[in-house]
Write a structure and sequence with these properties.
The protein has 128 residues and is an alpha+beta fold. 25% of the residues lie in helices and 34% in strands.
Length: 128
C-alpha cells in the first residue's frame, strides 16, 4: 500500500515533503522485492543530489541496488539508525526506515512524480 501523503518514482523511492525539506525512502514494494536488507550506503550530510541520479545504495541478501534521488536538493540529515539496523528498511520502509532528509531545490519536481494511485498502477503493470 502506498501512503497518499507521498509521491513516488518509477525506481521505487518515495518522498514526503515537510515544508522546504522532504524525507526520502524506498517503497514497501521495493523492500519486499529486495528481501532482507543487510547494508545501506547513504551520502554525507551536505551532499548535493540530482533527480534520477544515484545518491547511495542498498544491499540485501538478493542484490545491491542504487538509491535514486526523487528531486534535486542537498542532504540535510541521514537516518543514522540504519547503520546498525538496516532491517528497519524492511520492517518500516515508509516510517522508521526512511533514508535521508533533503532540502528541495525545485518543488515542481515533486509534482511531476507519481501519486499513490499512479504508483500502485505502475507496480501492478510491472507485475502483470
Amino acid at each position: 500500500m502506498a501512503p497518499e501523503d507521498c509521491r513516488y518514482t518509477r525506481t521505487h523511492e518515495w518522498i514526503r515533503v515537510e515544508g522546504a525539506q522532504a524525507l526520502v525512502g524506498i517503497t514497501e514494494h521495493a523492500a519486499e522485492q529486495l528481501g532482507d536488507v543487510t547494508f545501506v550506503e547513504l551520502p554525507a550530510e551536505g551532499k548535493e543530489v540530482k533527480q534520477g541520479q544515484a545518491f547511495g545504495s542498498i544491499e540485501s541478501v538478493k542484490a545491491v541496488s542504487d538509491l535514486n534521488a526523487p528531486v534535486d536538493g542537498v542532504v540535510v540529515t541521514v537516518n543514522a539508525a540504519l547503520e546498525t539496523e538496516p532491517e528497519l528498511v524492511n520492517s518500516s520502509p515508509q516510517d522508521q526506515g526512511w533514508l535521508v532528509k533533503v532540502s528541495v531545490a525545485d518543488a515542481s519536481q515533486v509534482e511531476q512524480l507519481l501519486s499513490a494511485a499512479e504508483y500502485q498502477a505502475f507496480v501492478a503493470e510491472q507485475e502483470g
